[in-house]
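Exam review. A common question shows you a sequence with its structure tokens and asks you to describe the fold in words. Practice with the pair below. Do the first one on your own.
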Amino acid sequence: MLADTNLADERNRRARQVATALIVAAIAGMIPLVVSDVYTMNVLILTLMYVALSQSWNILGGYCGQISLGHAIYFGIGAYVTTAALLVAGILPWFGMLAGGMTAAVIALFLGYFCFRLGGHYYTIATIVIAEAALLIFLNWEFVGAALGLQLPYTGDSWATLQFGQSKLPYFYLALGFSLITWLIAWTIEGSRWGYWWRAVKDDAEAAESLGVNIFSSKMAASGISAFLTAVGGGFYALFVSYIEPQSVLGFQISLLIALPAVLGGIGTLWGPAVGAIILIPIGELTRSYIGGSGSGAHLVIYGTLIVIVSLLRPEGLSSVLSVSKRANGVTR
């Protein structure tokens, strides 16, 4: 009887989580009704995009405990595959983003086969080195424009090519939908057998292995899903800005911006990446806009300061303050 009660409570709790997410998405969807400024809309779109990207990173770094600082490689692959597919083969972005996601997932599995044999900080260092190597390759790869990058010509507003020059509103709703989908994927995984396995691997890999968890396969699955979603985000970004070059999609700053929101908001939580992105991304955009070149790097100082303060005062992440996130072991805060 107690087990049945606990199961019912768990189902109700998860149902409330989904209801909360849908309500938050609905409220966010009404923001354009009161915000028409183009600059503000750009900031909102980038914020929603990084909500999704950080949640994608959280699947690997938060739930599975594999801290990657090289996710820019998947973001860049998604951006370049989506752009090149449209320019070279005329493949519509809807399919180009999927192709970019699958390409990134395959590369993640290939890299994971070797990198997951490394432990702890050695794995993190390996991800940085590989991402920097990818940056150098793209800087010198003439097929993708080398250092000059690729430009998407504007052919008129179209949902087929996902180009909108008259209004940013479609990009806003695309970014909102992407962030909601990544949240739902994380929510599904969190309550699944995979989710329990990954959290076990994160907490104590040896203990998890002794209980029959295949550690290597768990890491590989988390890496593939995380890379796929990150690459889809890269494809969306390429369409949004219509121009990409290696530094803008493969630079180390991209990897940091993908990981930091989850760190600030709460690693291994459903709402942590969203809370972190809502705080960090507008700070970065506003700093660059109002301080400009004279304040280059100011946003990084602010990021670092916030991370230190949160680490000292609220190591679980800012989302714990709102009492809407949950610990990786499934206990609601």
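Now try the second one, then compare your answer with the model answer below.
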Amino acid sequence: MVSNDIINRFEKDGAVCIRGAVDNENIKNLLSNLDPLINDDEDRWTTNRIGGFSDRHLWPTMPWMYDFCAHTKLPEIAGLLMRSKTARLFFDHTFIRDPGTSHATPWHQDQPYWPFQGNQIISAWVSLTKSNPFSSGLRFIQGSSQWKKIFQPTAFGKDSASSKFLDESNDYEKMPDFDSKSDEFKIIDWEMEPGDTIFFGAYAIHGSTKNLDKKNRRAAISIRYVGDDARWDPRDGTDPIVDQDKVSINPGDPPFDDKWFPEVWSRESR
């Protein structure tokens, strides 16, 4: 699935779609485990039910999620695309958009929100249902990861960790309104089937529109992996889901903490 041409395209564009990266059986098994969480009344501290359902970092307590993150082809593809010798698991993030929801995700980068520095940081956005830009599929600004530029982050809610960082990042350039600059920047997106997966780097600018499909939900899960050059950086304002109080490593260290960042693939184990 990962030829040199695909790796080169990933590095040039910042995002690449791998068709059938996850087989149908794994997709069905994951949805069968997610649906009870979506339909129950329990709100874990990461749960968001605005316009659908969102929850994250389930793998430490739910073995079926760990199996999906660690024992499918995803970590190997991620490691090869990063040109890394290893891939370590960071966290999983489920995104469900209800039919016709007005909720959208603004243009942003992931790097400002995460407690890591490095170039070998990647997400695998797995489509669990059919999706496209009309139904809130992901869109990317082609080549934006090559800019190696951090824009002012958007606070996803007033109580989010990024709110503090936003207050301290006025020196960063504001995210451009790419939708009004379509003649200057190319937006790339894909028509996706269940199991198709978009891999993208932490600097890649991306977002999604409303789910304009009035009949079908859009379900996806994004798995975050880190590679060899990632370094722990729990600076103020980054995602507190894993913080310095939990880990056994210090700022500036590689993510060699198997409890919170387990190694899920290596070239030696291929």
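Model answer, second protein: Residues 4-265 form a domain with the Jelly Rolls fold (CATH 2.60.120.620). The first helix runs from residue 4 to 13. Full marks require stating both points clearly.
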